[in-house]
Amino acid sequence: MKSRIIDHKPQLEEIINNCKVCHLSMVDENNMPYVLPFNFGYADDEIFLHSAQKGKKIDILTNNPNVCVAFSGDYELKYRDEDVACSYSWKYRSVLAFGKVEFITDFEKKKEALNVIMANYVDRKFKYNDPAVKDVNCYKVVIEKLEGRAYGQ
Q1: What is the DSSP letter of 20?
Q2: Please, what CATH class does the domain formed by 3-151 belong to?
Q3: What pLDDT, on the 0 to 100 scale, is given for residue 44?
Q4: Domain ranges of the chain
């Protein structure tokens, strides 16, 4: 089975919107990769994320905002011959989003970001308490390039 490039934006966004978890790839000060899973929201060519105020990922993103975000789904195990291990593979679709992280510090903008994140999981509006919004770190990935692939489709 061969992979197929997906470059039609509505298809790329469909893959992103069907995902519940993304993986954020960063590069630390020692030029080492660092990847973490996140829940997320997607709107208007931006990926919204949140986390604690401090930690390794915040240190990395502060020093190097260049990131790659991976999304994948629609997994299905395939095989040509059920008795031959090498004939097994996965059918799936994936998107890589390349961009830069921008931290969101404005209180109202943080609530907007949290609303985008929550909309990916629950179809309703939420209230936020001020201390929680103040204490959370919100950021967005401004997408510069999207790449999609379908394998086994």
Answers
A1: S
A2: mainly beta
A3: 94
A4: 3-151
